[in-house]
Amino acid sequence: xxxxxxxxxxxxxxxxxxxxxxxxxxxxxxxxxxxxxxxxxxxxxxxxxxxxxxxxxxxxxxxxxxxxxxxxxxxxxxxxxxxxxxxxxxxxxxxxxxxxxxxxxxxxxxxxxxxxxxxxxxxxxx
Length: 126
Prior knowledge:
Strand content: 5-15%
Number of strands: 2
Number of domains: 1
Strand order of the largest sheet: 1-2
């Protein structure tokens, strides 16, 4: 029963994030993308009441709901963001969970910041 549940969530998440398109766009990141999916599946199938996200206990149902709403653009954003990180991450699982969970609330600010940076560079003639 548990494996069936995990398989159903795995397929649903892959469909939600358009996994095949992500693989086409990021062929060298297959292992990382598979890891994101498995991490989300693990949370969706968790029997725990709470999941620790960025040091806070968040109801598992809330985390699960947010993970099931993630789309292609969120995963591409997390992949890009984490690949640019230059600091040592001691608990990569917790770091990735937080990045995935926060993707819907941080994606717009991230891209707005990139655009502002690019415009400032263009204005400065750089």
